[in-house]
């Protein structure tokens, strides 16, 4: 069969446009495709929620690809291993209570589960702003990352979401926008982003889970962003907290949606 370049082009434009249009209004919009965002996307999609995830970079996985200092292995504790087990990711016990997994297997598998469960991932898209009505964040303002990188003067587009998850990692990008542009207080001691503290793996892992919650109406924080928002220490390349945080976000959103029915 002769291949026609125009059909190939039309197929891509048609299919992408359809996917993009279908996701202009979603149940949950997740900003950031690192481990916490991807795990949240999987559990939410699996529960039947309409989920869109926006990732600035071409590739998904955030800081997980590089393991620790580009040694592409990750460490998880028992509770973290239980999440990896759900994804059928191979783990090996290194010492009692410390498990290792291949960083590439981990991220590619979680990605695969999330997309197969129905979460739609929009890579190369950056979220640069939010939409607020009646003191609640109800939408995201998105732009192609190459536009952002080139500093082109192009106006963005908007999507609406019942729930928004800031899974932007150390940068807490959504929270920064809310702090800078809106008269909304975050649900932290200071009312703003408290900032990440230095390394303390054990404390950080516990606090990350505790701090995974709704931080202002309509916005949830997951992973490193939850940690930085509430002033928790960093934990280095132990990833259980990130996985458990993604799972907790999904549970919180599913429970809230149920209670509103
Ligand atoms: C679109 C955006 C935007 C934006 C950022 O950093 P991540 O891997 O995030 P987590 O929280 O899932 O995992 C953190 C982990 O990787 C880590 O850094 C750890 C455990 N550190 C410990 C330590 O001590 O340092 O991923 C966040 C993703 C990235 O891929 C960004 O490109 C993306 O979010 N992102 N995407 N629009 N405005 N901001």
Question: How does this model look, in words?
Answer:
With 261 residues, the chain is of the alpha/beta class. The protein has a single domain, classed as FAD/NAD(P)-binding domain (3-Layer(bba) Sandwich), CATH 3.50.50.60. The chain is 41% helix and 25% strand. The chain has helices at 5-22, 35-46, 78-86, 103-116, 145-150, 173-181, 201-210, 223-229, 240-260, and strands at 25-31, 51-55, 73-76, 92-95, 98-102, 120-123, 125-133, 136-144, 157-166, 213-216, 219-221. The strands form two sheets. Strands 1, 2, 6, 7, 8, 9, 10 and 11 form an eight-stranded mixed sheet that branches. A three-stranded antiparallel sheet has the order 3-5-4. A hairpin with a 2-residue loop joins strand 7 (125-133) and strand 8. Helix 2 (35-46) packs parallel to helix 4 and helix 3 packs across helix 9. The protein is globular. The termini are far apart. The mean pLDDT is 97. Bound molecules: ligand 48H. Ligand 48H binds next to helix 2, strand 2, strand 7 and helix 8.
Low-confidence stretches: none
Structurally, the number of domains stands at 1
Which topology does CATH recognise?
FAD/NAD(P)-binding domain
The hetero molecules present are:
ligand 48H
What's the CATH architecture name? 3-Layer(bba) Sandwich
Order of helices and strands: HEHEEHEEHEEEHEHHEEHH
Mean pLDDT: 97
How big is the Rg? 18 Å
Instruction: Kindly report how far apart the N and C termini lie.
Output: 52 Å
Residue share in helix = 40-55%
Q: How is the main sheet built?
A: 8 strands, mixed
Strand content: 15-25%
Tally the helices.
9
For the secondary structure, the number of strands is 11
Helix/strand structural class:
alpha/beta
- Principal-axis shape: globular
- The CATH class assignment is Alpha Beta
CATH level-four homologous superfamily name: FAD/NAD(P)-binding domain
């Amino acid at each position: 069969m002769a291949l026609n370049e125009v059909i190939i082009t039309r197929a891509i434009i048609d299919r992408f446009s359809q996917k993009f249009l279908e996701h202009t209004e979603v149940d949950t919009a997740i900003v950031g495709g690192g481990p916490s965002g991807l795990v949240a996307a999987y559990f939410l999609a699996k529960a039947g929620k309409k989920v869109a995830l926006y990732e600035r970079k071409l590739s998904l996985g955030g800081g997980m690809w590089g393991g620790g200092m580009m040694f592409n292995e990750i460490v998880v504790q028992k509770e973290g291993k239980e999440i990896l087990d759900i994804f059928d990711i191979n783990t090996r016990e290194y010492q009692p209570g410390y498990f290792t997994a291949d960083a590439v297997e981990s991220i590619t598998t979680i990605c695969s589960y999330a997309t197969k469960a129905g979460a739609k991932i929009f890579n190369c898209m950056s979220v640069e702003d939010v939409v607020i009505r009646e003191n609640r964040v109800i939408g995201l303002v998105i732009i192609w990352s190459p536009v952002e990188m080139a500093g082109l003067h192009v106006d963005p587009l908007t999507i609406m979401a019942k729930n928004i998850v800031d899974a932007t990692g150390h940068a807490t990008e959504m929270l920064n926008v809310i702090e800078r542009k809106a008269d909304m207080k975050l649900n932290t001691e200071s009312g703003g982003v408290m900032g990440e503290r230095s390394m303390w793996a054990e404390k950080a892992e516990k606090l990350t889970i505790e701090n995974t919650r709704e931080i202002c109406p309509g916005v949830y924080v997951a992973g490193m962003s939850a940690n930085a928002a509430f002033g928790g220490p960093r934990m280095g390349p132990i990833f259980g907290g990130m996985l458990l945080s993604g799972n907790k976000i999904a549970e919180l959103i599913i429970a809230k949606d149920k209670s509103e029915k």
